[in-house]
Amino acid sequence: MNHTCTKVTVRQRAIRNDRISLYLDYYPAVRNPETMQMSRREYLGIYLYAHPKNEMERAFNNEMLNKAEAIRCIRVQSLINEEFGFLDKTKQKADFLAYFKKMCRTKDEKWTFVYQHFYNFVKGKCTFGEVNVDLCKRFCEYLLNAKQLKRFDSPISLNSASGYYSTFRGLLKIAYRDKWIRENINDFLDKIEPEDVKKEYLTLDEVKQLAATPCDIPVLKAASL
């Protein structure tokens, strides 16, 4: 199998106020994990003096160039890890809770409930490296025994736990698609089976009896049928 690794180069761009902006140039282009768009440039937010006037400014420029080179090396390592299937240590250390919370912004309210339960479960700290099959199974057990967020004396219903865990597994699927986690954890997880909700309804004879029952308020009778 042939592998073509992306080349990463530190480049400079002149900007106003006699400054130079440093950015990374990727060739070929890579996908931005935030926007999911293909891009060749990553601006670093690092600036140089375009015309350093003294030794201090020249030393500052050298230090910023060294920092840009260090970032370039990290990016190259990440690309190689991804290309050859190694687990990227940088992604392992990334904040899973921050990723989860960001996803909630574009989802319905249930996602926020699931986020809060997971936040409580992990005590407010969780990296991508900690997200594995064992953690996810323990979160399943947590949901089956957890209390409601707004009613601390009432447990979560089985059907709510089922829906919450399904949402969480949906998040894992997105994270796997976005290459934040290397393994498709869902392959090793079982869903929480919901219970059938018994619906009360009238028999045909009961409906006929109700229709034949006198009522002084026509609107009320019509609403009951």
UniProtKB/TrEMBL annotation:
It comes from the Bacteria. Keywords: DNA-binding. InterPro entries: Arm-DNA-bind_5, DNA_brk_join_enz, Integrase_recombinase_N, SAM-like_dom. Residues 96-185 form the Phage integrase SAM-like domain. SUPFAM superfamilies: DNA breaking-rejoining enzymes. The keyword DNA-binding applies. Residues 8-77 form the Arm DNA-binding domain. GO terms for molecular function: DNA binding. This is Phage integrase SAM-like domain-containing protein. It comes from Candidatus Gallipaludibacter merdavium.
